[in-house]
């Protein structure tokens, strides 16, 4: 009789990768994965990508909101740009989840390279 760990299920591991790609919420398990320095190379790469996306969205959102608060004439355009940034972040995360579901590699031009160089150097 084979005694296997139920957490070694590849489908369960793939489902946990979906959690890493959830917008905003996936940042925290991704950070935890890299902080512990455990997990497969694929899991670490996805964690770095999720962190890079979340941090870039947060910085852009904060800058656009601060600009909208500090100026009167540009308030509406900056708030619209902030909402477009947020919408884009959610759509990109959803697209990456679809690619994960199709078992395709998760890679974004520019952002994946930044994630590997900056975040990989500091947290991995």
Task: Kindly describe this structure.
The protein has helices at residues 10-20, 27-36, 41-70, 75-101, 111-123. The protein is mainly α and 124 residues long. The chain has one domain (24-123). Helix 3 (41-70) packs antiparallel against helix 4. The model has no long low-confidence stretch (mean pLDDT 86).
Helices and strands in order:
Blueprint: H1 10-20, H2 27-36, H3 41-70, H4 75-101, H5 111-123
List the defining traits of the structure above.
124 residues, mainly alpha, 0% strand, 5 helices
How many discrete domains? 1
Residues in helix, %: over 70%
Count of individual helical segments? 5
The major pleated sheet works out as: none
Instruction: Report, as a whole number of angstroms, the end-to-end distance.
Output: 38 Å
Stretches with pLDDT under 50, minimum 5 residues: none
The radius of gyration computed from the alpha-carbon positions, rounded to a whole number of angstroms, is 17 Å
Share in β-strands: under 5%
- Label the structural class: mainly alpha
**How many distinct beta strands?**
0
Describe the global form: elongated
Mean pLDDT: 86
Order of helices and strands: HHHHH
In short:
The protein has 124 residues and is mainly α. The chain contains five helices and no strands.
């Amino acid at each position: 009789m084979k005694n296997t760990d139920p957490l070694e299920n590849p489908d369960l591991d793939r489902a946990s990768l979906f959690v890493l790609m959830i917008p905003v919420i996936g940042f925290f398990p991704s950070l935890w994965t890299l902080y512990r320095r455990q997990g497969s190379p694929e899991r670490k790469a996805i964690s770095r990508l999720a962190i890079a996306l979340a941090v870039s969205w947060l910085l852009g959102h904060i800058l656009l909101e601060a600009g909208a608060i500090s100026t009167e004439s540009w308030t509406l355009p900056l708030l619209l740009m902030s909402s477009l940034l947020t919408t884009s972040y959610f759509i990109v995360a959803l697209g990456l989840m679809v690619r994960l579901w199709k078992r395709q590699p998760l890679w974004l031009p520019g952002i994946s390279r930044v994630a590997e160089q900056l975040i990989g150097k500091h947290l991995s």
